[in-house]
Amino acid sequence: MKHLLKDPTLWRDGAYIAGEWLAETPHGRYTLRNPVDQMVLAELPRCRETEVRHAIDTAHEAFGPWRRLTAKRRGEVLRRWYELMVENREDIATLITLEEGKPLEEARGEVDYAASFVRWFGEEATRVRGDLIPGVKDTQRIVILREPIGVCAAITPWNFPAAMITRKAAPALAAGCTMVVKPASQTPLTALALAELALRAGVPAGVFSVITGNDTRDIAGELTANPLVRKLTFTGSTEVGRLLLAQAAQTVKKCSMELGGNAPFIVFDDADLDAAADGVMLAKFRNGGQSCIGANRVLVQSGVYDALAERIVERMARLKVGNGLEPGVQVGPLIDDAAVRKSQALVDDALAQGARLLSGGKPHALGGCFFEPTLLADVTHGMRVAREEIFGPVMPLVRFDTDDQAIAMANDSEFGLAAYLFSRDAARIWRNAARIESGMVGINCGLISNEVAPFGGVKQSGLGREGSHLGIDEFLEVKYLCWDGLESV
């Protein structure tokens, strides 16, 4: 598959630690497969505690020199990294499609999204500033400094293998921190290509390392237990996030967690139904439904329920399912067989409890990890498909009558990552947006992710924010200097 790249040297099949490529470890290798046809893509080294410890040690050594660089210089390095990502957009997108399965056009969009964080935080590096506060005595001044926290560890998911790394690494490096990244074992090639470009951009050895391997418990155990790691950032399931928080508590690390979601997509009876149908298609079927902010529950007011369902059925019928490298494909495979089984189980549970199947409902005729885009009507709030994070191309329609009923159902969840509201009544939007328990709300739009806005959730959907001017704060500590003995004026 290396021949598909314009620059074959971006195809890396070794871990990147301390500025060097590690082809072998004593722990052997693991096999990476294409989710379309299970073809072997690469054999990668399995890293465990020893290799992770080495990466952390070198990150600790590199931290001092890196933090002492001027913010302007760090920003220039990040700017070059961004430019290299843009120049190699097609190759990075191809790697994403090969190992994760999303359609190539969508993968190109992810590369643009990923690169935007590198550009944004390269610019934010020069905007980190402290404060001067009048003292409690006239001979005293209070100085506030904001300093890089130190060595950071990132554990990233497979569904956005480029963007979930740069959204963490770019602010960390901009702040003056160093970082060790453990990408998902299903999507290491994208991460390794980013490491190669970081090397070319002038990121010094040890400042940015990428650990490969499928021994996730061992790797995460060292990242969370090692006292040299002062910050842990994770994107993944709430279940795993709870475990990592408990482990990181032993060394009292600063943590940011972007965890699971169960996004309600609420369509009120005064909404533009065509805009709502377009919005829900975008919010649901991006990456085949494998998105933490994807529309998980579509709550539709009774008066427009059938009309919206008809519009969605029409749009779903036009979706092209297939290999993401093929022209025009809009929905690729799910990541693995377990994801297919989960989608089927959620559909079966809903149908057994009285839901109606309007479209799809089973594994696709293409076989493998493909699943039909599915629409379920007459879903009730108690069904599994309305309460669990689906992470697949299954859309449940839930009926409601009043605004209060919709908000109550939307908030009846342990999750609170994203929500969507469609209405043409501004007062209604303001009122209900204030009552929604989520970190982000899309209003009359189905795509809310960008580098300038704070991304994150409430409740058990996470801690902290990524992106925006707030994102760099996650990698900074506040130091207070009480300066006395100054002459009074």
From TrEMBL:
Gene coding for it: gabD
Transmembrane segments: none
Organism: Pseudomonas thivervalensis
InterPro entries assigned: Ald_DH/histidinol_DH (IPR016161), Ald_DH_C (IPR016163), Ald_DH_CS_CYS (IPR016160), Ald_DH_CS_GLU (IPR029510), Ald_DH_N (IPR016162), Aldehyde_DH_dom (IPR015590), Aldehyde_DH_Superfamily (IPR050740), Succ_semiAld_DH (IPR010102)
Name under which the protein is recorded: Succinate-semialdehyde dehydrogenase (NADP(+))
Annotated catalytic residues: 258
EC number annotated for this UniProt entry: 1.2.1.16
GO cellular component, as recorded: cytosol
Family assignment from sequence similarity: Belongs to the aldehyde dehydrogenase family.
GO annotation, biological process: gamma-aminobutyric acid catabolic process
Alphabetized GO MF terms: succinate-semialdehyde dehydrogenase (NAD+) activity
Keyword Chaperone part of the UniProt annotation: no
All copies of domain Aldehyde dehydrogenase, residue ranges: 24-480
Superkingdom, taxonomy of origin: Bacteria
PROSITE patterns per UniProt: ALDEHYDE_DEHYDR_CYS (PS00070), ALDEHYDE_DEHYDR_GLU (PS00687)
Keyword terms of this UniProt record: NADP, Oxidoreductase
Coiled coil residues, start to end: none
